[in-house]
Amino acid sequence: MRSVYAKEMLIYFSSPIFYAVSFIFLCVLGIFFYNDMAYMSMLASRIAQYQLSTGLGLDKIVLRPLFSDMSILLLFIVPIIAMRLYSEEKGNGTIELIFTYPITDLQVLLGKYLAGLSVIAILLGITTVLMLLAGIVVSPDWGLVFSSYLGLFLVSASFLAIGVFASSLTKNQIIAAASSLGIILAFWAVGWFSDVFTASAVAKFLGELGIMEHLDDFMKGMLNVKDAVFYLLFSLFFLFMTLRILESHTWRG
Prior knowledge:
Blueprint: H1 2-13, H2 16-50, H3 58-82, H4 84-92, H5 95-100, H6 105-137, H7 142-167, H8 173-189, H9 201-209, H10 216-219, H11 225-252
Helix pairs in contact: 1-6, 2-3, 2-6, 3-6, 3-7, 3-8, 6-7, 7-8, 7-11
């Protein structure tokens, strides 16, 4: 597993796709951060001018919208990170070689998955610079920052599990990215239908199944065990399905 992990990390950091995706992600997020801070500055000057009292602060004006924007960006970025994990092996014809190695499918899967998680963690780690910049202006709620980053990491792990599953289905990386994005959007949109079935078990089920619904409490600074367990089980389910796909290739020869 460590060998697969090291190989995948080397491929990530030697690929221009990783740097292009990281550049776009950080630039767009930087623009959102600048706009939120500019809006806060303008609002603060108006409050001071008219001597108004308000409960708004950095958390509501900057941090929550910024973390929400970050989750949307990750929704599109993670499928690109995951698209090559198995599709590239199939496209290059090396997937059969992997099956002959004296390692299990689970070890290969965990090595690839942990490499993708490491890349996501690096991207999220770089964005902490924005939190430090915000801390120069006003002290943020670091508990909210921590819980939001934990929620983003967990939801990204779920996105990545879907991406790995989609990548195991095809040898075309573009199709893998599009498929994983479609599945993620489907689980995002399913929570919206809970409003249609008001006051029913169906509404509760759809609301719990929505992948972004469980991120709300993290964004509010609350660590909810139920939401964390949902993301862990969600990731394990798609990793389990990926193993079944890999096993089907083995017995089909």
